[in-house]
Design a protein that fits this description.
Elements (H helix, E strand, L loop, with lengths): L2 E3 L4 E6 L6 E2 L4 E7 L2 E6 L4 E6 L6 E2 L4 E5 L1
Antiparallel strand pairs: 1-8, 2-4, 2-7, 3-6, 4-5, 6-8
Length: 70
């Protein structure tokens, strides 16, 4: 199953999807906050959200899995 990976370390500021949501290429899925800057993370392919591995406020490292979709 495809996974959305954190490209940077930071905090999960906002989750814009829920399990079961259909997403398309380039939809905003998660917003990370790092160094007082918000960085939107976009879907890299279409699918349906099957699992959200983080919650708002979580600290994540680069390459952590944020969302799984299929």
């Amino acid at each position: 199953m495809p996974e959305l990976i954190a490209p940077i370390a930071g905090n999960v500021w906002k989750i814009l999807v829920a399990v079961g949501d259909k997403v398309e290429l380039d939809d905003e899925v998660v917003i990370l906050e790092a160094l007082k800057m918000e960085t939107p993370i976009y879907c890299e392919e279409s699918g349906t959200i099957t699992e959200i591995k983080v919650k708002e406020g979580d600290a994540v490292n680069e390459d952590d899995v944020l969302v799984v979709f299929g």
